[in-house]
# Entry
Amino acid sequence: MPADHSRHPLPSPDLVSDDPLDSELLNIEETPALKLAQDLEIDRDLSRERREELEYYTFERTVDEVDDEELERSGFLYTVRTVIRWGHTRRSDDRSETTVITLWRKKR
# Structure
């Protein structure tokens, strides 16, 4: 895995042997940011202030479905959506989110 774990990078096509729509490396259910930091073993490097900031953040990543013809035409490009949410989970009016769209090419 690349050195910058904090961005939870998209995996190399060489690492995805299954269908990208089902890949656990590409698709990540909504997960608290602190849990991701623990999974990536970078949580011990976080200051108390940074931990408190991340307490109200979640991260989710999904691959958009695409039909076989479009997939062939695009050269096996998939659209990957990363959604980052923040704010108090109990008050929906205090919750915000942003979506980052990235293209990922499947190895043929």
Notes: Residues 1-7 have pLDDT under 50 and may be disordered. The first strand starts at residue 28 and ends at 32. The radius of gyration is 16 Å. Helices lie at 33-39, 48-54, 68-73.
